[in-house]
């Protein structure tokens, strides 16, 4: 069975969100143990702002996959082992963002998130216009909308990308990242190459969800499950799941 394609952090699932600008995530190619395309190795410089349980695991796994990782944490001592493993320490969120093509913010709440994005030492003060800016914190809708507008105002690509999978998922590259934003939505409507998440794999997950629901009614789940069952019967199990659900694609 074809499972989900794995990026260094895990699987990206596209959802509609409040982000404003669109672009491609920039990559530079060199010889390192990162992702491959057309025989070349792709590596990005990535800043991780916030080294709690999830941020630390993400930074560790990015380092193992050959990416250039810049780290910042409110208590610098927490970055010591990551620096020893090859990460570059930054004196502020702005300094971390200035060195990165992709910035992940993984803090605790609205207050801590606002503190690392705004102000003279914030991410927005240091990030290049070409950088892709991502929040993976647990935040309120109001603050995410405000942050998306601030990023759009400076012409930056922004994703609201909460994640699930726990500390183990962060360390092992098995997170599920829920990507919200215009680029996320447009890419969701375009079948990926290679396949990101096969129809047969989606059918397996949906069938499991139906079993877990027991005797409870779940008409929406039944309808979607029927779509994927039909796709499998038609021999489309290896296609990307997004090609099977016309209701989602047309919304």
The termini sit apart by 29 Å
Spatial sequence of strands, sheet with the most strands: 7-6-5-8-9-10
Percent of residues in beta strands?
15-25%
Tally of distinct domains:
2
Keywords: Oxidoreductase
Family: Belongs to the HIBADH-related family.
Protein name: NAD(P)-binding domain-containing protein
Organism: Streptomyces bugieae
What does this structure look like?
It comes from Streptomyces bugieae. This is NAD(P)-binding domain-containing protein. Residues 46-184 form the 6-phosphogluconate dehydrogenase NADP-binding domain. With 251 residues, this protein is an alpha/beta fold. The chain folds into two domains: 10-188, NAD(P)-binding Rossmann-like Domain (Rossmann fold), CATH 3.40.50; 199-249, no CATH class. 38% of the residues lie in helices and 19% in strands. The protein has helices at 53-64, 80-84, 93-98, 110-117, 123-126, 141-153, 166-172, 182-188, 199-213, 219-233, 246-249, and strands spanning 10-15, 28-29, 35-37, 40-43, 45-49, 68-72, 88-89, 102-105, 132-135, 157-160, 163-164, 175-180. The strands form three sheets. The chain has a six-stranded parallel sheet, sandwiched between helices. A three-stranded mixed sheet has the order 1-12-11. A three-stranded antiparallel sheet has the order 2-4-3, with no helix packed on it. Strand 3 and strand 4 (40-43) form a beta hairpin. Helix 1 (53-64) runs parallel beside helix 7 (166-172) and helix 9 (199-213) packs antiparallel against helix 10. The longest helix has 15 residues, at 199-213. The two termini are 29 Å apart. Mean pLDDT is 80; it is low at 1-6 and 14-41.
């Amino acid at each position: 069975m074809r499972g989900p394609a794995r990026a260094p952090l895990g699987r990206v699932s596209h959802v509609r969100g409040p982000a404003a600008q669109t672009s491609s995530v920039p990559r530079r190619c060199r010889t390192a143990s990162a992702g491959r395309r057309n025989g070349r190795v792709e590596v990005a410089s990535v800043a991780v702002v916030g080294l709690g349980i999830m941020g630390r695991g993400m930074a560790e796994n990015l380092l193992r996959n050959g990416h250039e990782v810049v780290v910042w944490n409110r208590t610098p001592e927490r970055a010591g082992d990551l620096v020893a493993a090859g990460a570059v320490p930054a004196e502020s969120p702005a300094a971390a963002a200035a060195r990165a093509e992709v910035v992940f913010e993984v803090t605790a709440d609205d207050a801590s998130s606002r503190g690392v994005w705004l102000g003279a030492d914030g991410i927005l003060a240091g990030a290049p216009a070409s950088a892709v800016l991502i929040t993976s914190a647990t935040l309120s809708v109001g603050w995410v909308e405000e942050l998306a507008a601030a990023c759009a105002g400076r012409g930056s690509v922004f994703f609201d990308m909460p994640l699930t999978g726990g500390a183990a998922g962060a360390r092992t590259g098995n997170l599920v990242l829920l990507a919200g934003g215009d680029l996320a939505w447009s890419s969701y409507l375009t079948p990926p190459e290679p396949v990101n998440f096969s129809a047969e794999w989606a059918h397996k997950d949906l069938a499991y969800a139906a079993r877990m629901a027991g005797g409870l009614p779940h008409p929406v789940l039944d309808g979607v499950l029927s779509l994927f069952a039909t796709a499998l019967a038609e021999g489309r199990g290896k296609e990307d799941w997004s090609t099977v659900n016309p209701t989602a694609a047309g919304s």
